[in-house]
């Protein structure tokens, strides 16, 4: 199937009917933007994926419960940055209820139509007087050009904003999909600290939209890792609202949804705390896609692989060792391995290769200067692993592990 989607500007507000805002409310001592709002058009449906951790913030349970009760309908999501509002006892739920009720009143909505996400330090409650005082200027700032401000206001330790928008002609009309996300550390989602939002101006039945979003999450946010740690607040919310799209175009729509989700997921992995490059692992020949993805994410998540990449050391033994502990059966005698254009193994046996050239390849990726081979961008280390003759193929993304990761997280609250 050809790809009908092309990039456009506008981020999460590129789709028609969506408004967003981001302001500095004073929730962070840094003075950076910290309060964000995304408003979907009337009649919009919303799909959600959430952390599977037993220790999770009240806002996660509130979002999941409201989507379940409404059959997948919601109009708005409020995001506060600076405080995770997780492990804060009964106050956590009370504050989430207060915030959504206060925002609903200002938007003329029912509280059940408003969702909330929080991100920041675990165990720290939201300063509610500050948040509520910020709601009027937040609503006043709502705009069809507010996607960039909203994307900036959800960040914590991120170094860059993460947003994208795509457009395609489906059913004789333009359809747009936008997205924004945050995440840099505690990234190993099972739905890391990550939040992701997607908007679409095509009308799709709620159950169909949820299925599309779930498959996209499996191939994007659940296929990234930075440090192996999941979070109490991981949430992905996808809104769709607009003129109904005929069923014959749903496959193309899902292609766009997946592309947006994968772009955001790669951006999170590339912005991993202390990272110097993105790692992409492509596994082929597995029994099924899920098994291939599991092997790929195990390789991406290996601390030894991540350290070797950071040290520009083509130590391929770490890659196959990680693949072997993924819990997915394959024949070690069938393994072939490539690092960029350098083939390192064939039929389970090592090959002679130019080690200095392979090391140069890793250095070039870290410098964002690699221009050859299969890499989609200059700073992506490409690892390809063939594990058999099956039809299953899957991709995962991660980043290298540097001493800066330790420094950032050692000093996180002090």
How would you describe this protein?
By secondary structure, this protein is an alpha+beta fold. It folds into two domains: 265 residues, 4-Layer Sandwich (L-amino peptidase D-ALA esterase/amidase); 133 residues, ArgJ beta chain, C-terminal domain (Ubiquitin-like (UB roll)). The chain is built from eleven helices and 16 strands. The strands form three sheets. It has a six-stranded mixed beta sheet with strand order 1-7-8-9-10-4, with helices on both faces. Strands 14-13-12-15-11-16 form a six-stranded mixed beta sheet. The longest helix is centred in the middle third of the chain and has 21 residues. About 2% of the residues have low confidence.
Properties at a glance:
single chain; 414 residues; alpha+beta; L-amino peptidase D-ALA esterase/amidase; Ubiquitin-like (UB roll); 2 domains; 6-stranded mixed beta sheet; 32% helix; 24% strand; globular
Q: Helices and strands in order, then pairings?
A:
Elements: E1 6-7, E2 19-23, E3 35-39, E4 45-50, H1 58-70, E5 76-83, H2 90-107, E6 114-121, H3 128-140, H4 147-153, E7 162-170, E8 173-182, E9 195-200, H5 206-218, E10 235-240, H6 250-270, E11 278-286, H7 289-301, H8 303-310, H9 317-324, E12 336-339, E13 342-346, E14 349-350, H10 355-366, E15 380-386, E16 392-399, H11 403-410
């Amino acid at each position: 199937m050809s790809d009908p989607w092309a990039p456009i500007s506008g981020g999460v507000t590129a789709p028609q009917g969506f408004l967003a805002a981001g302001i500095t409310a004073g929730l962070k001592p840094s003075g950076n933007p910290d309060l964000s709002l995304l408003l979907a058009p009337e009649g919009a449906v919303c799909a959600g994926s959430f952390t599977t951790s037993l220790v999770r913030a009240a806002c996660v349970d509130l979002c999941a419960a409201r989507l379940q009760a409404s059959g997948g309908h919601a109009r708005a999501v409020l995001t506060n940055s600076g405080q995770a509002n997780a492990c804060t006892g009964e106050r956590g739920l009370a504050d989430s209820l207060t915030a959504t009720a206060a925002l609903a009143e200002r938007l003329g909505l029912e509280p059940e139509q408003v969702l909330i996400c929080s991100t920041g330090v675990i165990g720290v409650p939201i300063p509610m007087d500050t948040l509520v005082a910020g709601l009027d200027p937040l609503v006043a700032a709502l705009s069809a050009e507010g996607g960039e401000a909203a994307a900036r206001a959800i960040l914590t330790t991120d170094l860059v904003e993460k947003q994208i928008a795509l457009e395609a002609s489906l059913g004789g009309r333009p359809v747009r999909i936008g997205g924004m996300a945050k995440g840099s550390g505690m990234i190993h989602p099972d739905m890391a600290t990550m939040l992701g939002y997607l908007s679409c101006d095509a009308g799709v039945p709620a159950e169909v939209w949820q299925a599309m979003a779930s498959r996209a999450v499996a191939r994007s946010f659940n296929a990234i890792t930075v440090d192996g740690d999941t979070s109490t607040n991981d949430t992905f919310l996808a809104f769709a609202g607009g003129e109904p799209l005929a069923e014959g175009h749903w496959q193309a729509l899902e292609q766009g949804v997946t592309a947006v989700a994968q772009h955001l997921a790669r951006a999170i992995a590339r912005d991993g705390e202390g990272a110097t490059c993105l790692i992409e692992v492509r596994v082929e020949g597995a029994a099924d896609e899920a098994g291939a993805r599991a092997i790929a994410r195990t390789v991406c998540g290996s601390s030894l692989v991540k350290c070797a990449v950071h040290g520009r050391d083509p130590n391929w033994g770490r890659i196959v060792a990680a693949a072997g502990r993924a819990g997915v059966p394959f024949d070690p005698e069938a393994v072939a391995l490539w690092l960029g254009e350098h083939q390192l193994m064939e039929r389970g046996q090592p090959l002679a290769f130019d080690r200095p050239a392979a090391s140069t390849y890793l250095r070039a990726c870290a410098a964002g200067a690699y221009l050859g081979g299969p890499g989609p961008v200059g700073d992506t280390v490409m690892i390809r692993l063939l594990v058999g003759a099956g039809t299953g193929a899957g991709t995962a993304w991660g980043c290298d592990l540097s001493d800066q990761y330790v420094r950032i997280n050692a000093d996180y609250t002090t």
